């Protein structure tokens, strides 16, 4: 079995999405449009590479070597390979890995990061056999947004309104508030567990390309909480309405506004809008040490999924 290995083309996305989607972290929907966006959004200057293994003109494997954008430092690359389940253990993954590892090294990758979902144990085995170690565990869960209690949302909204807060959508605030939205998002992200203090800042153009220009980001269901003119919390959702499946892009509260129920309010509001739009599944992943976010999810009635494990090779 000698698949051809060549760079990814947009036309591969449909064939890849058909088997890649079950391997996705719970917050991603690997639709063809999203895969094309994921590849195109990577800054060319940082030399990303996606390669595809092709057999009988079908894309049966994918290898990725990318810069780490959020929380990235010079010398850190994100690497991943996946093979269609019926064609595993025939050397395709190793062949893709050779290509990806060599590229990551040539790009100055001293520390490689990767990930696997725990219900695909072959992923972990593959990584451990290649010198990676497990470094973090994300707890994944999902919720049917129509299951949230409308009374909870009403109460949370009434209390927040009485304290001078209001909830709106991302669509209402863009494009004028883009700089403030970016600051809130990145500020909340910087104060999340495992954020690296030495991480390089994310440029405005990168943020726009990575997050705001994602064709799956739902501007009508993604919410923002304001206090007066100040943006204080957000919960953004992305996904595929036709599939009825969404994931959480990010939920966060500005550091000095935490502990007031604002993330819960933002997420409840976003889920309510998603439920009304026909979405029946919203997935999320949170670091196992992120107690406040896990508490929010528990309170909303989220149901557990397989863990999302993070791995690292090299570096400190
Ligand atoms: C991890 C993954 C990419 C491996 O793909 P694969 O095509 O099965 O990979 P290979 O066939 O090259 O190698 C897998 C193992 O099978 C072994 N193998 C290869 N051919 C074999 C054969 N004919 N019989 C038995 N074992 C075989 C390899 O030696 C390798 O063992 P090792 O990891 O201990 O070195 C695949 O399981 C997958 O897609 N998993 C889900 C995605 C994922 O979690 N990726 C995370 C890792 S980046």
Any idea of the CATH class of the largest domain? Alpha Beta
Distance between the termini: 39 Å
Q: Overall pLDDT, averaged? A: 93
What is the CA-based Rg, rounded?
20 Å
Second-tier CATH architecture of the largest domain: 3-Layer(aba) Sandwich
Tell me the total number of β-strands.
13
Key descriptive features of the protein:
Aminopeptidase; globular; 2 domains; alpha+beta; 29% strand; 13-stranded mixed beta sheet; binds coenzyme A; 316 residues
SSE layout:
Layout (H helix, E strand, L loop, with lengths): L3 E4 L5 H8 L11 H9 L8 E7 L2 E10 L8 E8 L8 H15 L4 E7 L3 H8 L4 E11 L6 H13 L2 E5 H4 L4 H13 L13 H9 L10 E5 L2 E11 L4 E9 L8 H15 L4 E7 L3 H10 L2 E2 L3 E6 L3
Parallel strand pairs: 4-5, 10-11
Antiparallel strand pairs: 1-2, 2-3, 3-4, 5-13, 6-11, 6-12, 6-13, 7-8, 8-9, 9-10
What does this 3D model show about the protein?
The protein is α+β, with helices and mostly antiparallel strands and 316 residues long. The chain has 2 domains: 4-137, Gcn5-related N-acetyltransferase (GNAT) (Aminopeptidase); 141-307, Gcn5-related N-acetyltransferase (GNAT) (Aminopeptidase). It contains 10 helices and 13 strands. It has helices at 13-20, 32-40, 92-106, 121-128, 150-162, 170-173, 178-190, 204-212, 262-276, 291-300; strands at 4-7, 49-55, 58-67, 76-83, 111-117, 133-143, 165-169, 223-227, 230-240, 245-253, 281-287, 303-304, 308-313. Strands 1, 2, 3, 4, 5, 6, 7, 8, 9, 10, 11, 12 and 13 form a 13-stranded mixed β-sheet that branches. Helix 5 crosses helix 9 (262-276). The longest helix has 15 residues, at 92-106. The relative contact order is 0.17. The model has no long low-confidence stretch (mean pLDDT 93). Coenzyme A (COA) binds next to strand 4, helix 3, strand 5 and helix 4.
């Amino acid at each position: 079995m000698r698949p051809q290995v060549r760079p990814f083309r947009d036309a591969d996305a449909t064939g890849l999405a058909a088997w890649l989607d079950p391997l996705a972290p719970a917050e991603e929907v690997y639709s063809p449009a999203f895969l094309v966006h994921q590849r195109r959004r990577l800054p060319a200057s940082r030399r990303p590479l996606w390669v595809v293994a092709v057999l009988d003109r079908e894309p049966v494997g994918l290898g990725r070597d990318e810069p780490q954008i959020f929380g990235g430092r010079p010398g850190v690359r994100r690497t991943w390979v996946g093979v269609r389940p019926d064609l595993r253990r025939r050397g395709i993954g190793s062949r893709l890995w050779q290509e990806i590892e060599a590229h990551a090294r040539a790009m100055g990758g001293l520390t490689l990061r990767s990930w696997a979902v725990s219900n695909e144990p072959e992923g972990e085995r593959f990584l451990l056999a290649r010198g990676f170690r497990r470094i973090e565990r994300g707890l994944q869960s999902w919720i049917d947004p129509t299951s949230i209690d409308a009374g909870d949302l009403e109460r949370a909204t009434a209390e927040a309104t009485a304290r001078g807060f209001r909830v709106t959508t991302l669509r209402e605030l863009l494009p004028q508030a883009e700089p403030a939205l970016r600051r809130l998002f990145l500020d909340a992200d910087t104060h999340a567990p495992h954020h690296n203090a030495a991480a390089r800042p994310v440029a405005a153009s990168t943020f726009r390309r990575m997050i705001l220009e994602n064709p799956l980001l739902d501007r009508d269901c993604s919410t923002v909480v304001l206090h007066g003119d100040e943006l204080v919390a957000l919960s953004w959702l992305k996904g595929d309405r036709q599939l009825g499946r969404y994931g959480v892009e990010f939920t966060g509260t500005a550091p000095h506004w935490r502990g007031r129920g604002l993330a819960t309010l933002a997420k409840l509001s976003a889920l309510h809008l998603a439920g009304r739009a026909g979405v029946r599944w919203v997935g999320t992943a949170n670091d196992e040490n992120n107690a406040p976010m896990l508490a929010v999810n528990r309170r909303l009635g989220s149901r557990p999924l397989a863990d999302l494990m993070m791995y690292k090779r090299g570096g400190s």
